[in-house]
Design goal:
six-stranded parallel sheet, alpha/beta
Length: about 260
């Protein structure tokens, strides 16, 4: 038994969707979360900057005795997951990538859309992912520069989000596809808004379930799973009274976000 927490990091609050999946599957595990609001958004930064910030965030989580690290940010994962594993060889480091393989396997029309940050959409990594797992499919690889900012304000519905989504998921796109991949951990909080746009016949896929199951496998394999009363701590690299309110609204429970100088 190992009661140390699972460390979870993101550029902001998107990784709370991964936190939510982990605690649903592993209710006995403690967690410590940090959002890098001082440097959000990552999607507009260089690979070097993203790697540097992620390295510091992992260091912070290790100072909180984390036994496993989840890089709960697609952009940060794509920017350097192998680097993080080299820098921190003594702890499991798990990344998050768009579930392109799942979409390719499930899509009966061989056509689906991937919504992600501009960095992720334009990355060589994502293009290789699509080429590898969906070479014969029609894939709409859509960079979304503005969706993240809505979630960071705790806004998950309304006319402004509808307008943004309709600009991406046009009638022509929706008529062609039968699945939408959420390639940013912020986007599961927009699930209902996306469902209203694409209708009931289009699958909406995210990586939360796959990541939480992978965490469970690693905990079991390394014999570091916990049994006991869990604790959950939340941090941000910006001191703001608004953060607790936003996190609470996103998770539908009272959350206190503390300041972390990272």
């Amino acid at each position: 038994m190992n009661t140390a927490p699972i460390g979870i990091l993101d550029s902001g609050f998107g990784g709370l969707s991964i936190y939510r999946s982990i605690v649903e599957l592993l209710p006995l595990e403690s967690t410590v979360y940090v959002g890098d609001h001082a440097y959000i958004p990552y999607g507009q930064k260089s690979k070097k900057e993203i790697r540097g910030r992620t390295r510091k965030l992992i260091g912070f989580l290790l100072s909180k005795k984390a036994k496993l690290i989840v890089v709960a940010c697609n952009t940060a994962t794509i920017a350097g997951i192998e680097k993080y594993r080299v820098w921190f060889p003594d702890i499991p480091v798990i990344g998050v990538v768009p579930v392109v393989k799942t979409a390719a396997e499930q899509s009966k029309r061989h056509a689906f859309a991937v919504l992600s940050t501009s960095f992720t959409a334009g990355s060589v990594y994502q293009k290789k992912l699509i080429k590898k797992f969906a070479p014969d499919a029609k894939v709409y690889n859509l960079g979304c520069p503005n969706l993240l900012s809505f979630v960071e304000r705790g806004v998950v519905g309304g006319s402004a989000i509808d307008t943004e989504l309709r600009g991406l998921l046009t009638h022509a796109v929706i008529r062609s596809i039968d699945a939408v991949v959420l390639g940013c951990t912020h986007y599961p909080f927009l699930h209902d808004a996306i469902r209203a746009i694409v209708g009931k016949k289009v699958d909406i896929l995210d990586s939360g379930g796959a990541v939480s199951r992978h965490v469970a496998r690693i905990l079991d394999h390394n014999r570091i799973a916990a049994v006991g009363r869990p604790t959950h701590a939340f941090f941000s690299t910006v001191r703001s009274a608004k953060h607790s309110a936003v996190a609470s609204a996103l998770l539908h429970k009272r959350i206190e976000v503390q300041y972390a100088r990272v």
